[in-house]
Amino acid sequence: MTPLALWVGPEATVNRVGQVWHDQLARSGFATRLEDLDRLAATGAKAIRFPLLWERTLAGPQQYDWHWSDARLNRMRQLGLTPIVGLLHHGSGPSGTHLLDPDFPSRLAHFARAVAQRYPWVTDYTPINEPLTTARFSALYGIWYPHARSDQAFVQALLNQVMGTITAMRAIRRIQPYARLIQTDDLGHTTGTPPLQYQVDFDNARRWLGFDLLLGRVDAHHPLWSYLQYAGASVETLHALREQACPPDVIGINTYLTSERFLDHRLERYPTALHGGNGRDAYVDTEAVRVLGHFDGGVAARLREASQRYGRPVALTEAHLGCTRDEQLRWLAEAWDSAAQLREEGHPIVAVTAWSAFGAFDWSSLLTRHDGHYEPGLWDVRSDPPRATALFSLARHLATGEGQRHVVTRSPGWWRRSIRLHHVPHGAVHMGDASTGPPILITGATGTLGRAFARLCELRGLPFCLLGRQDLDIADEHAVAQALLRWQPWAVINAAGYVRVDQAETDPRQWRENVTGAVVLAGACAARGIRLVSFSSDLVFNGQTARPYTESDRPAPLNAYGRAKAAAEVGVRQVCPQALVIRTAAFFGPWDEHNFITTGLQRLKRGDSWQAPDDQIVSPTYVPDLVQHTLDLLIDDAEGIWHLCNQGQVSWYELACRAARMAGRDPMAVQPVRSGALAWPARRPAYSALGSERGCLLPSLDDALAQYFVHRHASEAVSDTHDVRVDLVRKAVDAL
Prior knowledge:
CATH topology of the largest domain: TIM Barrel
CATH superfamily of the largest domain: Glycosidases
Strand content: 15-25%
Structural class: alpha/beta
Shape: elongated
Number of helices: 23
Number of strands: 32
Helix content: 25-40%
Strand order of the largest sheet: 1-4-7-8-9-11-15-16
Mean pLDDT: 94
Largest sheet: 8 strands, parallel, barrel
């Protein structure tokens, strides 16, 4: 038996909402970077799901522009990558047609024939990606163009796509007789409470409908035969489709956690926002993973179903999770291991596809808005050139066996832990909560940053040890050596340090804590091959610039604290060149009571005024965002100096006014002052905004402020006896 193959693919959707087109290839940059194909080949993948899309290629009536595809398909041949050519990806075709157009199949077939004539050596095709899913979104739910909402429109859109696939493959095979159809679709599964079994049965029959039609399995005995006729499909049309059956050579299964659904008639168990129904019964339709005590969904279950149902080769054609890096790694690893295990059981599983290779934009809104919500993939395109993430290393390991899996994959994914449950569990709860593998050692147990890292490591299933000064004196070489020997960490996050900027002017202890300790810890980590994160500050700069500082700008601190941080940067990188050094600024967050925003709002709540400098420009940083992205960079083996702060620059006064308005307080109670009037012993730069030449990873300041208030309100709303951590963790999982 040939080994399990790795396939790869960029997110390729070109969909339409009203008159607005959403092009993932343009947004990720894949449309303009020919060298991305070399990146994909470096994974060791055998094939690429390649988007030679109808909308992007049409240049006029039955005229096509091949310049883009010529360059890329020629490069793929040089690289030895097999293209699986896709012609339509969640789209409805060029502007002159749509999924309900009677001429849609023949027009697609014309394009397919032109593609085959241009590239007769190509043998693998997916004419239409996920036809059933696209029909649901475009013609049943009205989310995408042509925005229809009826069973009749849904069935017509599905039949048009099935016939389009059949006619496209017929046209292709006239040119390339050995062309294979690799047909994809999302294979979500539905369970529910007994009173809703009829709806569960319908949903589970419908999910196979696209494949069943292509395989010629829809006849009078099919469970949806009557439904199809009710929705306008004539018997003659259904018979014709059966006679022209075009069985896929490979069944391509796409499965996502949100596609696994649970229907519950017990409305009182859920927020009213989730209440819905089908016109016959009221019920909640929610993610199964959030409510089932025993969740047996996921990749293995769906691949096994497809193999048993059709007895044909099966591939997992999309393996992607929009989440933190550790969870993304666990999802891809579980997908691969599930496919490999099924192969050992005798199922014909041929490949796993590392999907969204260059990430995906705005799937959080189902591609209906341009919010800029980005989910990285094997590369993060927020860096130029795209930065390889830990997913690239894992994909290469899976394809070639080179290297090792990251230690974070030893712990179960969130979908296997109790954190997944948002509602009253249905059935006995079975979990595998234990996080295994070596820990991350976090210093600074009493500080805002150290506690935040511990909180979010717990959320992400990352084993950790949180140590205070009494547990570990980082400036003591012997103590550091003993701690590393005892805990055997794979990484150290140094969140300890002296943070009182004004007192640092006269307190000699700050140099020992901020410089000596940082360098001692860095040297010990380097000697043992342990990853290290160290933190620095915007106060290493003097403010003599008119643009945000980037990583390569030369430090020129104005105060003792800044001088210590600048010295620590140099010392840490000298003894530990692979260290990750994060420069950040102006913390605020929901979990401590002593940051600028929280203390200021408390003053306004008491009826006091809030003084804030209006002559210092900073880049405020929301602590949860900082911690999440630092952990991602650590897992990605990033090194060197990175600037991490929320995007946007404001004066302290403007920040205070924004926070006051969002809190429902009168911003007129915020008083602007000149920093000189505050009599601070330590000089501050008038301008210390941070930018990045390596990649702006954190979201906007407005987004961060909105998240701050969501979390603060959540914690204030719970009673003193409630575990606030549980409430915050569940909300954080929503954000993941």
